[in-house]
Amino acid sequence: MTYATDFRPLPPPDKSPAEHLRRRTPAVFRGVAAHWPAVSTWTLPYIASLDPSLPVRLVRGNRENTPTAFTRSELGTYLHHLSEPPRADGDLLYLKEFDLLRQFPALRDDLKDIPFLPRGAVTSNSVWIGPARARTGLHQDLLDNCAVQIAGTKRFLLARPGVVERAGALSAKYDTWARLSRVGIEELLADRGTVTDDEDFFSVELEPGDVLYVPARWWHEVVNLDASILLSGFFGSRAHVARLWTQVGLRDTLHRARLLNPRDCTCHPARR
Ligand SMILES: [Zn+2]
Question: What pLDDT sits at residue 1?
Answer without folding.
Answer: 43
